[in-house]
Specification:
The structure holds 2 protein chains of 2 kinds. Chain A has a domain of 87 residues: Helix Hairpins (Orthogonal Bundle), CATH 1.10.287. By secondary structure, chain A is an all-alpha fold. Chain A is elongated. By secondary structure, chain B is mainly alpha-helical. Chain B contains 42 helices and 4 strands. Chain B has a two-stranded antiparallel sheet. A two-stranded antiparallel ribbon of chain B has the order 3-4. The C terminus of chain B is likely disordered.
Chain lengths: 127, 949
């Protein structure tokens, strides 16, 4: 079972990193989602795997899984939602304003935006 | 306390000159002078105690954990240097008042000067070596400001920069050296370190530490091969040169050598490094000085030469040489400061500093001429002046030195250097004052106002007085100072003019004669010298600096391309290399923990996850398909949590996944649904390689951890959950109680993210954005914005979903559930209304503003935490009790519940705000007039009738 969880975490990490290295916003966002999954499972696995021992105190329980990583991962899941939402909206607004969803400055594919003004003011200064 | 004030007074007083300059230049100078005089008086008030043999100390903790304290001590050496710095400082302040012209901002000048003075006094009085380093760096910074005072001059700016680079770089070496010294000695207090000389010299770290400390001292004192910065620093106003580059800052390096003499000197390494560096500096600088045409340049190189002399003496490592070094420090400060000020007067009155354009000033400026001639005679080492005495002592020491088995090396070289110093002194004196009067001086030379020559006169009086009555005037000072340097009993010596006919006297006389002859022939020698190629230090320095800058620019241009892909690739590549290094250098034994057996459902789920992940990577160009595949992965992840005893996580994961999917779907409606194919196969394979490598590493790491046993700290939480937190669901109790503060912070983060989203989308769209929004065409399938089935289903589901939410919330403390999950469920139920019936319809019916909900949630959670203060408990201490009501039975009420309510409200508000904002943008894009009440029409008879009519 451990092998399955470990390899699945590895696959999710690899796919996350591959998508993170793409040049457009949405693949990068999906990459972040994959990485969040992987990191959350990773953190969770630090408490080791146990079956049928939820950390809910009861007289009948034979043992408990480690509750601390679970609490940490729970907040991590919610925070990663907040992060994803913010990035999605940034990407959305960025696309609407510039017409491009490229993540780098290198290739901004906008054709109907006004030409960049850099150097425009300088050119008028006497040299 | 008293000692602390000495460096503090000049630093604090530095604010006064810029303020008082409005009242005139005299007031400004007087205020500056008073501050210095006050500090000097404080220093001298300790003189009786120091001369009784006491050491005065002051101590104030700063960062005791680092061994950093505000501790000062004053002994013979500290007193000597502090008095010299402040005394000559006072003279320079008077001199500068008359030297600076009306156009020079005097307030700024005096402010810098006082700052420098405070830093310098701090260096010589610090007990803590870390504090000493702070002051050391401050002297570099303030001298940068002083050298670059005439900031309109390019030479001033370049000279200042060079000085800062060299002395600042040396300061870095010194920091490392001092840290090592403190580490070896086990204390950062000088007074302790000075007692542990044997321990330090025996340490294996002695040599590297010595080299680093010497690096700091040699750069500061302009020792070969770092001597080149000092002449370029002469672009400063002359008062600065007189102060920094003769009496004080450049002596800081010599001071450091003297201060650490008891713990560093006396070893072979010390002698073999320090003595020849001093000798070479002394010789080379004296040679260059002879041929300098610029008065200040000549003096600058002569200063370098004399600093070399002091360094060499300290390098000999014998007590007697240390006494000679101390005596020469005193003598050099007097005659060299006088000479610099004299050169400044000549420059000021004639308008030039070039020796070739001067001459014959003896009768035109008799007072200045007398003073400068006496001072330069002392520099040349003429009898009856103080320069003669310390030079005799130096020669006496050097004649007995045998270096590398060569008994003649030091005597010959030192004799040569003495000869050169006679020659350049003669050049200065004769070239400026003797010879025929000229008629082409740039100005009309005459003696300056008394304010300018009086400071020089004070110093020259000292030069003569010490020269005539050395034992009476300088004897006690030298003795007490040398005692502090040596850290033990003094050797027997006596300061006197006549020691009989000694070898030193013969060398001295021979050097005088030969030096005079050399001076007469220097014109011819210079022509020969110019025939040889000479290294230009400034050009070399500039080349080094510009190649460094070019290298940095190249690095920046290559790595800061603005491409996020490149940044990620660099960061990931670095992490991978580091991780791989760690992996290969570790042992690779398998774990010993028992492994859980594999099951068929688990295998199926694993297969689904891996297939969906790989498909997402391969088909990422189609964004909608990727979204679906991502959701599958999320679903399997929540199953993983469920399988391995984490029901809370499973619930949270699945509800967050639903919300995220809806969010991405909403956003995908407004952006392109496909990603263009970009980048060559090489790039894809590179990325795939990095990704595979990283995935392999993570998988191996997780597997390695999971197959090993561990100690958990959670047993405390499991035991205390019920008795301490009042709940049986330990995860929830951790969230709302044990680690409640974390959760509180997280709520705030979530709220801020939602508000940022609101701000991003509420801000009016620019023209281009509005046009783009208007240009979005929705597909045929999406034309029906509000399908009837969806509308009916969501409305029917709303009360049900809300009930489920309340249920999950209430049971959260004891069973899987809680504020987070309940908040997500309720937010989902509400978001469905927005999706099904449209933003306008849903928003019109929203009774509670979602921003208010976020705020209320955080306030409730915060108040719950503060509530525990009322009972005198720490923030967020929870309490609970059991109550019984008729009919309902016994139930539990806990303050953690109120906190969880805050969590709940904040989560609902944040999710609702984010998603409803996106749907609002979409509403604008749809352009079709929004129906007020989709699907309400049939229920509203009047409306139907109106439509039909």
């Amino acid at each position: 079972m451990e092998l399955l969880v470990a390899s699945a975490t590895g696959v999710m990490t690899a796919v996350g990193i591959y998508l993170l290295l793409r040049a457009r916003t949405f693949p990068v966002i999906f990459g972040l989602t994959f990485l969040s999954y992987a990191v959350n499972v990773f953190l969770f696995a630090m408490g080791r795997l146990t079956i049928n021992q939820p950390p809910v105190v009861s007289a009948a329980a034979t043992g408990y899984s480690d509750p601390l990583p679970q609490a940490l991962v729970l907040t991590a899941i919610v925070i990663s939602f907040g992060m994803t939402a913010l990035i999605v909206v940034l990407a959305l607004r960025g696309f609407l304003e510039t017409g491009s969803d490229a993540v780098g400055l290198a290739s901004s594919g906008d054709d109907d935006a006004p030409p960049p003004r850099a150097g425009g003011d300088k050119a008028r200064l006497p040299s | 306390m008293n000692l602390l004030l000495i460096p503090l007074i000049p630093v604090l007083a530095a604010i006064l000159p810029p303020l008082t300059i409005r009242s005139g230049r005299n007031v400004c100078a007087v205020v500056t002078g008073l501050a210095t005089a006050l500090a000097l008086a404080l220093v001298l008030s300790h003189a009786p105690a120091v001369y009784r043999g006491e050491i005065v100390q002051t101590r104030l903790d700063w960062v005791p954990q680092l061994g950093l304290t505000f501790s000062f001590f004053i002994d013979g050496l500290g007193l000597f240097f502090a008095a010299m710095i402040l005394g000559i400082g006072l003279l320079v302040i008077v001199y500068a008042r008359f030297y600076l012209s009306r156009n020079d901002p005097m307030g700024r000048f005096y402010a810098y000067l006082l700052l420098f003075q405070g830093a310098m006094v701090g260096v010589v009085l610090s007990d803590n070596i870390l504090l000493l380093l702070v002051f050391w760096e401050l002297t570099s910074l303030t001298s940068f400001l002083l050298i670059g005072y005439w900031r309109h001059l390019p030479e001033a700016r370049q000279g200042a920069r060079m000085a800062l680079v060299v002395t600042g770089g040396g300061g870095l070496l010194l920091i490392a050296g001092m840290l090592m010294l403190g580490h070896i000695a086990g204390s950062y207090e000088l007074s302790v370190i000075l007692q542990r000389g044997d321990l330090i010299k025996a340490s294996p770290l002695y040599l590297p530490m010595l080299l680093l400390v010497l690096g700091g001292a040699f750069t500061k004192s302009a020792q070969f091969p770092f001597h080149f910065w000092l002449p370029h620093a002469m672009a400063a106003p002359t008062p600065v040169s007189a102060y920094l580059h003769s009496a004080t800052m450049v002596k800081a390096g010599v001071f450091l050598l003297a201060r650490l003499w008891p713990v560093l000197a006396g070893t072979d390494a010390w002698f073999l490094i320090v003595a020849p560096v001093g000798l070479v500096t002394m010789l080379v600088a004296a040679w260059i000085a002879i041929f300098k045409d610029d008065l200040k340049g000549l003096l600058a190189f002569s200063t370098v030469s004399h600093l070399g002399l002091m360094t060499m003496l300290l390098g000999f490592g014998t007590p007697m040489a240390a006494v000679a070094a101390v005596f020469h420090i005193l003598n050099h400060a007097t005659f060299k400061a006088a000479l610099f000020m004299g050169a400044g007067i000549v420059d000021h009155e004639t308008g030039t500093r070039a020796i070739r354009r001067l001459g014959g000033l003896l009768t035109l400026m008799p007072i200045t001429a007398t003073l400068v001639l006496i001072a330069s005679a002392s520099m040349a080492g003429l009898p009856l002046l103080n320069g003669f005495l310390s030079k005799e002592m130096m020669l006496e020491q050097a004649l007995g030195i045998s270096y590398a088995g060569l008994p003649w090396l030091f005597p010959v070289m030192v004799g040569l250097a003495t000869l050169f110093s006679v020659a350049y002194s003669a050049r200065l004196a004769v070239g400026v004052f003797f010879g025929p009067q000229r008629h082409d001086y740039p100005a009309h030379p005459h003696d300056p106002p008394a304010g300018m020559w009086l400071p020089v006169a004070v110093l020259v009086v000292l030069v003569v007085a010490i020269g005539l009555l050395p034992a009476l005037i300088a004897g006690p000072v030298v003795a007490r100072t040398a005692m502090a340097v040596i850290g033990g009993p003094l050797p027997s010596y006596y300061l006197a003019i006549w020691h009989g006919v000694t070898p030193a006297l013969l060398v001295s006389m021979g050097a005088l004669a030969a030096g005079a002859a050399f001076f007469l022939a220097h014109g011819g020698i210079d022509r020969i010298r110019l025939g040889f190629p000479r290294p230009d230090a400034k050009r070399l320095f500039d080349r080094v600096i510009s190649s460094l800058v070019a290298c940095a620019s190249w690095m920046t241009a290559r790595s800061h391309t603005g491409s996020l892909q490149l940044y990620f690739a660099i960061i990931l590549g670095t992490v991978l290399v580091l991780a791989a290094t760690g992996f290969w250098s570790a042992s690779h034994e398998p774990g010993t923990r028992d492994i859980l057996p594999m099951s068929l459902p688990a295998l199926v789920a694993w297969f689904a996850l891996v297939a969906a992940s790989l498909a997402a990577a391969l088909r990422h160009h189609d964004r909608v398909v990727t979204l679906v595949l991502t959701s599958i992965v999320g679903l399997v992840v929540s199953l993983v949590f469920l399988q391995f005893s984490a029901p809370d996580l499973a619930l949270t994961q699945i509800s967050v996944d639903v919300v995220t999917t809806v969010l991405l779907l909403l956003a995908l409606n407004l952006v392109p649904k496909t990603t263009p194919r970009e980048g060559g196969p090489l790039l894809h394979w590179r990325d795939a390689g990095i990704a595979a490598f990283a995935g392999l590493g993570v998988a191996g790491l997780v597997y390695a951890v999971m197959t090993r046993g561990f100690e958990t700290i959670s047993s405390y939480h499991l035991e205390q959950s019920k008795p301490g937190g009042g709940g049986t669901n330990v995860v929830n109790v951790i969230l709302v109680d044990f680690r409640g503060f974390d959760t509180f912070g997280e709520l705030i983060v979530l709220g801020i993210a939602a508000l940022a989203i609101y701000a991003l989308l509420d801000h009016p769209f620019g023209r281009a954005a509005a046009r783009r929004l208007a240009g979005i065409r929705f597909s045929e399938e999406a034309r029906d914005a509000h399908p009837m089935m969806l509308v009916v289903a969501t409305r029917a589901l709303l009360p049900l979903a809300l009930t489920v939410g309340v249920y999950i919330f209430l049971r959260g403390h004891n069973m899987p559930g809680g504020g987070f999950i309940a908040g997500l469920v309720v937010a989902m139920a509400l978001i469905m209304q927005y999706m099904a019936s449209g933003y306008v319809w849903a928003n019109a019916r929203a009774r509670i503003d979602s921003q208010a909900m976020i705020g209320a949630g955080i306030v409730i959670a915060g108040l719950t935490g503060i509530g525990s203060f009322v009972f005198g408990r720490p923030f967020l201490t929870s309490s609970f009790g059991y109550f019984s009501l008729p009919l309902v039975g016994t139930f539990e009420l806990a303050t953690a519940m109120a906190f969880d309510l805050g969590v709940f409200l904040a989560v609902v508000g944040a999710v609702l705000l984010s998603l409803s904002q996106i749907s609002r943008v979409q509403q604008r894009a749809e352009r079709s007039p929004a129906t007020d009440s989709p699907m309400d029409i049939a229920l509203d008879a009047d409306n139907t009738a109106a439509k039909e009519a």
